[in-house]
Amino acid sequence: MLRLSAAPAGVVRAAHRRVAQALLAAEATRLGGEARLAAIGGDAAGGDPALLGVPRAEAQRVATTLERLFGHAIAPGLAEILPETATCAVSLLRSGAAAGEPVPPELDGRIAALPLGRVARREVLLRLQPGEPPALAGIRLFVGTEALATSLGPAIAEDADLLGHAAEALAPRLASVLADPAARRALLGGVEAAVPLFVALPSPGAAKDAAAILGGASDDTGPPFGTVLVLPLSAVAARPEGLAGLRTPRGGALSVALDGLDAEALSLIAPDAEVLAAADWLALRWSPRLAEERAVAAALRRLDPARLLLLGCDGAEALEWGSAQGITRFGGPWIRQALAAARRLACAHASGCTVADCAARAAATDAAGRAGCANLPLLATPLPSDRGLPG
Questions:
Q1: For residue 92, what are the CA distances in angstroms to 46, 53, 104, 190?
Q2: Which parts of the chain register pLDDT below 70?
Q3: DSSP three-state, residue 228
Q4: pLDDT value at residue 75
Q5: Is the CB of residue 69 less than 8 Å from the CB of residue 265?
Q6: Structure-derived torsion over alpha carbons of residues 284, 13, 47, 27, reported in degrees to the nearest 10
Q7: Whose CB has fewer CB within 10 Å in the chain, the N or C terminal residue?
Q8: What residue spans of 179-236 are helical by DSSP H?
């Protein structure tokens, strides 16, 4: 367990608790059996996060991970292995897979019948450097949470664990599509850019399956400019050594990125932590707090900006801050809208749509999502023009 209640007053933040719970929930899912996420003790914050029902060797490994991640950020010595006869008040925290909650029997059938293009989304990543024209940095592919929730209905939409199960089930299908040239081009709208594909995956298991599928594709069939397997930080923090088995040598077909590095995570995890060192790319999540937190600035000084992407950019402030940190790869709603505006400048049919329409259609990966566009070749072109884009 992580005894946050014993930390010095004023040090623990809600983010510490959320990250610890996410890490322990991922461990409970991986270990299965009697492993379960719990809270020990009880206070206004919800008790100390703990992982119960695991062998002592696994408990020691998890405790070492907790100490490595939180010892520097909060205080040393908070990670503790509980005696088997512990009598502390225990309350189970909800985590569908960890608590062994059954998946509704009809759900897997509905997921299997769900057209991948209905829920998959694409996002163009731009390379922006002062004094140079914008260039493509990559194409990000992911299962859209909102699209998935809408497709599976309100009962599933309100259950994060079932949505996670659905995303896990769809991951091998996404990898299989990317390994097939015709299916991949259809998903991308018919155009393949000379940049890597950043494929968001929900878990190490999904990434392992994707690596097997994509790593087994020949040079003639796999994505021609490489694939980056993008994993949530919380899903791999406890076992970063597993990332090495997902990649091919640097410069090869497969590499690995970590997502979820927001201001809170950068304040919690040391820049030289094994989990960060094990990834080829690190995806930062923009919020104004990145520019406000002194701990973030200190962490970024120890990270190579060539490894960084800044996602979720929603305005000029994000681009200016990222550029000041030496970051050159950007994605987010502002980028999507800027690209849509550039397409409309080059499109003879621009009067028939809006910037929002164009951005939404460009993000779609099926014909239904692109319906209404009168210039599909231009819509599929990731970077049609640098007019109207930041230089």
A1: 11, 12, 21, 49
A2: 1-16, 33, 41-46, 68-79, 82-103, 216-220, 238, 247-252, 386-391
A3: strand
A4: 58
A5: no
A6: 20
A7: C
A8: 181-187, 204-215, 233-236
Nearest to 312, CA basis, from 236, 261, 386: 261
| Residue range(s) in the chain whose domain bears CATH number 3.20.20.450 | 107-380
Of 347, 337, 348, 326, nearest in space to 390 by CA: 337
Residue 238's contacts (CB-CB under 8 Å, 6 or more residues apart) are 23, 26, 27, 61, 62, 65
- Position 242: which residue type? G
Give the DSSP letter of residue 279: -
pTM, two decimals, is 0.76
Give yes or no for a contact between 254 and 227, defined as CB atoms under 8 angstroms apart: yes
Which pLDDT belongs to residue 84? 54
Which letter, b or e, does each residue of 318-332 get, where b requires 16 or more Cβ atoms within 10 Å of its Cβ? bbebbbebebbbbbb
Token pair of 245, please?
């088995």
Q: Helix crossing, 145-152 with 160-178: angle to 10°?
A: 110
Amino acid at 66: L
C-alpha dist (Å) from residue 16 to 12, 63, 70 = 6, 15, 8
Q: Which fold has domain 107-380?
A: TIM Barrel (3.20.20)
Pairing status of strand 329-330 against strand 120-127:
antiparallel
